[in-house]
Design a protein that fits this description.
With 222 residues, the protein is of the alpha+beta class. It contains five helices and ten strands. Helix 2 packs across helix 4. The chain is globular.
Amino acid sequence: MQVGEIRPATVDDFKQLLDIVFSHEGWESKPDKAGVKVWTKSMPSSPVKMIKLAVDFDDMTALTLYDVLHDPDFRPVWDESMIEGLDIYKIDDFNDIGYYSLRCPRPLKNRDFVNQRSWGIFGDDHMIMNHTIDIEEMPVKKDFVRGVSYLTGYVVKKTDTGCSVHYITQNDPGGQVPKFILDKISCVIAPKVLEKIHKAALGYEEWKSKNRPEYRPWRGSR
């Protein structure tokens, strides 16, 4: 799917995500970060590189981690950078449009994104992906820089001992920060985000038992 394109994601779109995640041709391997494998790749669609991560977790199920990535009530527990997250409207049971804003360290301005998110469970693969779109309902806000997600996605795969997590992102936060600096920073920050999600996920089931335990509409299989 392309930036700006609004439509339900197809099976072929998810297959493309899997191809990116599991094919390493043309990717440059970077040093592991706390057990997280890291790769980068230059892409013709953007001046910023695509980053790919992979890590195994033996202390939780794929479904639990998938819930953590989806659950809007739980996100403030682990995402300290988030200012606001909104569901703008639903396209169908597996696609929606959302708004997300986050704090950036000074002197940078805060960033925000308007993205289409698509998801589904395909056998052992639990997948989420997004890309930026533009809608009249969410114009650029004062004091924010509007970022662009060319493609961001998770594939959480069930394993015999727990799950493996595969994450890709090609994300341009906009503004005047040189792209080579963004590429270097992203290779450090992205593994830390996975570490933070993993730590939070260890307490998710207990938290969820007290916070709308029946609310998990994203679990439908496709």
